[in-house]
Amino acid sequence: MQEHFGINRPLATHWRKATCAEVDCPHFTFGWETLIDERTDFGKKQAGYIRHKSGRTFKEEVLQNGLTSFVFHAGQKCFREHKIPLEREPILTQGFYRAPLERARWINNFNENSYQINQRLKGG
Fold first, then answer.
1. How far apart are the first and last CA of the chain?
2. Comparing C-alpha atoms, which of 29, 35, 34 is closest to residue 74?
């Protein structure tokens, strides 16, 4: 029977927040443009946040198509939340219930399962 194997790095335990500089964020390096449609309620909220609460420097221009262009200068934090992995071993799981396994046992079980699948595919 074919098993399910997993290699997991949960966000809560295996990752941490990172700065734009740490992850070589292209927005941080080169700057970026955000286009917003202020004809919608959501667009009005986005533009209001950028103008009054974001703390970022930008140039603003209303385009002919009705959108507002916000061009942000390089060297400032973008709006994304970056994460980088911690140096922790992944959680290795096997089976329907995803029970965690010790590394050597997981590798052995994975290899055995792969061998069994191969044998069935070969008709053996």
1. 14
2. 29
Residue 26 to residue 22: CA distance in whole angstroms: 11
- Calculate the alpha carbon distances from 21 to 18, 29, 68, 88, 107 in Å: 8, 8, 27, 22, 36
Distance CA 26, CA 98 (A): 37
Q: CA of 39: how far to CAs of 72, 79, 93, 123, in Å?
A: 21, 22, 49, 64
> What does the pLDDT average to over 80-88?
96
1, pLDDT greater than 60: no
H or E stretch at 47: helix 41-52
**pTM attached to this predicted model:** 0.68
Q: Which two tokens stand for residue 44?
A: 């009005």
